[in-house]
Structure to design on (236 residues):
């Protein structure tokens, strides 16, 4: 499969930035991911990400590390952090930028170590793909967590993307799927990725999934646009 995301990040790192990543979704939306944004400094990050990085402690696994911006910030603070990504290009960029510990793997294929903090920023819970995969995903994360560890993740309630009627209700397709499930394709310099599933989880749905999988779930802060930062800890 073409490493569209990693190729774009590598181009930027090498000084060959000419265009952004285009995304196409099942919500009929065409959008772009501005590549420079993925290389941002701490002071350029949204408040939700800043808060998560301030709460990170102990041995940290940055899941879906991308260009390594979160890992680099923690590393500079003296925190032991490992950047994990399933993109060869992303891991190459992390190394070029100075991230000392990296792992090339899909999170569901990775096991062995245990961490004090698992970071899933920029809607990292989206890696679960679909709502019916969320339990398995959370159980796998639990297997990577120290008993007193924490998961810090952000996501969004994308209900705002659906039409609202006069009494405040939303027109959501009644096809049996959860409205936060989206299929994406990415394109960069004429190369397209295979479609992949991604999920945006509203806080109540996340709380319910946590409850049935042995986690406490706390909303740390809400962002400016239906987004939030959650902290998950294992129930004793």
């Amino acid at each position: 499969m073409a490493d569209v995301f990693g190729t774009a990040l590598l181009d930027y790192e090498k000084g060959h930035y000419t265009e952004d990543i285009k995304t196409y979704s099942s919500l009929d939306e065409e959008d772009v991911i501005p590549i420079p944004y993925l290389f941002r400094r701490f002071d350029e990050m949204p408040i939700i990400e800043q808060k998560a990085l301030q709460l990170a402690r102990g041995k940290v696994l940055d899941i879906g590390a991308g260009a390594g911006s979160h890992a680099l910030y923690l590393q500079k603070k003296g925190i032991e952090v490992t950047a994990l990504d399933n993109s060869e290009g992303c891991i190459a960029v992390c190394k070029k930028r100075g991230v000392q510990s990296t792992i090339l793997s899909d999170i569901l294929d990775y096991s062995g170590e245990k961490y004090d903090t698992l970071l899933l920023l920029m809607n990292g819970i989206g890696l679960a793909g679909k709502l019916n995969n969320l339990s398995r995903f959370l159980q796998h994360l639990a297997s990577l967590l120290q008993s007193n560890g924490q998961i810090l993740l952000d996501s969004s309630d994308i209900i705002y993307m659906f039409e609202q009627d006069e009494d405040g209700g939303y027109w959501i397709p009644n096809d049996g799927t959860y409205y936060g499930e989206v299929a994406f394709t990415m394109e960069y310099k004429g190369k397209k990725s295979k479609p992949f599933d991604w999920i945006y989880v509203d806080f109540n749905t996340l709380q319910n999934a946590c409850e049935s999988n042995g986690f406490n779930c706390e909303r740390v802060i809400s962002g400016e646009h239906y987004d939030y930062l959650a902290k998950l800890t294992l129930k004793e």
Summary: Residues 4-159+179-234 form a domain with the Rossmann fold fold (CATH 3.40.50.150).
